[in-house]
Amino acid sequence: xRDALAWSKYLNEALRLWDGKAEAMCGQHHWPVxxxxxxxxxxxxxxxxxxxAHDQTIRLMNHGLTAAEIAETIKLPKSLQGAWxxxxxxxxxxxxxxxxxxxxxxxxxxxxxNLDPLPPVEAGRKYVEYMGGADAILARAAADFDKGEFRxxxxxxxxxxxxxxxxxAARGLLADTLEQLGYAAESxxxxxxxxxxxxxxxxxMPKVPARPPMPRETLAALRTSQLWDVMGIRLNGPKxxxxxIVLNWHxxxxxxxxxxxxxxxxxxxxxxxxxxxxxxxxxxxxxxxDEVIAKLTSFPEAVAAGKVKLAGNPMKLAELMGLMDxxxxxxxxxxxxxxxxx
Amino acid sequence: MTDITNExxxxxxxxxxxxxxxxxxxxFSDTRDFDDAARxxxxxxxxxxxxxxxxxxxxxxxxxxxxxxxQAPPTVNxxxxxxxxxxxxxxxxxxxxxxxxxxxLDIANMTLIEGDSGVIVxxxxxxxxxxxxxxxxxxxxxxxxxxxxxxxxxxxxxxxxGARGVxxxxxxxxxxxxxxxxxxxxEHAVSENIIAGxxxxxxxxxxxxxxxxxxxxxxxxxxxxxxxxxGSVALLRPTDLIMATGDRRVIDGVEFExxxxxxxxxxxEMHFFIPRYKxxxxxxxxxxxxxxxxxxxxAPTCATRWPGRNI
Lengths: 342, 311
Known about the structure:
The complex is a heterodimer.
Chain A: H1 4-18, E1 24-26, E2 33-34, H2 36-62, H3 67-73, H4 78-81, H5 93-105, H6 120-130, H7 134-146, H8 150-163, H9 168-184, H10 188-203, H11 216-221, H12 224-234, E3 245-251, E4 257-263, E5 266-271, E6 280-284, H13 286-293, H14 299-304, E7 308-312, H15 315-321
Parallel strand pairs in A: 3-6
Antiparallel strand pairs in A: 1-2, 3-4, 4-5, 6-7
Chain B: H1 13-25, H2 32-38, E1 41-43, E2 50-51, E3 57-59, H3 78-86, E4 91-96, E5 99-103, E6 110-114, E7 119-122, H4 128-142, E8 147-151, H5 169-174, E9 179-182, H6 185-194, H7 197-208, E10 240-242, E11 248-251, E12 254-260, E13 270-274, E14 279-281
């Protein structure tokens, strides 16, 4: 999580180091600023923008306001509101304060009503039932849409779409509502989010080509431990129930030795000594493993080419890889998941 | 209630009223940003069009031609419209004599700092194709010269993805061109994106809108720049890490003073000042917008590749 307080302190430190010395200031986005006075003004305003957001969020938090309440309450001072470079085109004061809150207190607002609520589909069905059904909701939503109450209309229709994803009237009116929120938004990222949500409600998720494998240069830049970390988050826990697999790895080019261990449906690793009694041991170059992951070759091909030395039962590696999930490129966001994920 | 169709609709009266209020509330008569964004212009590539070796367009501002109108349409917030127009200033610009920037050929900038025998490249854009095109544009106006160092200001892909586009194979093989980056660059450059990459990429479609039509009823900007670049990405390992505030380097005869800024906009980030050019570069921590603090709002980016990315 980005640290707004540290951010502000670095800008203050930059002033201490260089204020008055620079005749031009450029960044790695947007356009430069010239002249010591304008440079100093911009850095001070940016410093105070992040400091104000941080400090006032925490002040309101310590008065007991929750993230959503802080976002609704906080207003930038006039001197920063009127500075063009303080406008929230990429971030936004209302979502930035929620991030600051979350950095300190996490997702929970301490109200036990919100400790273990029903997830969106189950809650949506009950909301629709309590609110008198789809038609009653749609009638009120249409009236509020005409009054410009887009934020709540979106909130209410979100429940209806999660309860009844095939309700065309609900999808249509929610799309129209998100679209108006997008047209109104000053933040480019808010506009994109609203308009893309509207588009997916109207047209469904776009088809996109399959994800290519990771490029070799990027793989080569990863530490071996990071490769195991990625394997760990791909392991399908339920499928791994009852499995115990231990694999020794020795990388001839880097000199590293790892033990990869699957038990309790969790994949862990240890560096250093090989495990006695491992199911299998593999000796190969780390670059060969990279080629396999980049799909430039396959593990059996690498074995056949003599690039991998084996001991024990290599089918245990195939068994482990059979427990790995492939992540979909696309998944539903503005409507319920069609696929069952466990 | 409006009709159910698949087409974008008009703005409603309440949205139009909000826009009118914003026009009155903000200092639209202050146009210094437009002067600054245009200052020092040396030349550009038509429509900032960049293609990959297969002929596929990886970047183009041609679809944003609708932004030529000064007045915002009812379907775009006028403050955002202003920013979207500012981000349309694209090409090679002189910052001060000896320091140049390529802007608008990517969401990020490439800064070029002339040394005694060549040019130091600060940040290499998102893609190899984009970085190559940006460096070629610079060469066309400032003459062909060797790249004497590459600096990565921070760990986000739009600042290092194209490094191979500015380094020749032999420079890579021999390591004779230093690649300078903040401490812990490698640890964060990929790890920030790799574990949550698949979820971040899908969320990025919402944040950056690459699959929306561009237009007054569609995508107009990303705040920091126009959009996410496509193209090829490769991560190169730095050869020289900046460890502490106050560290100095003389690079191709030019003295740099560095300041560390970890866990700000990126987990590893740094600023620098160049006394010779009286130039300050605060990387991505002092931009012309309120930046994003919750980096996983829909953090990252581009719809076309893996891993996911923060910007």
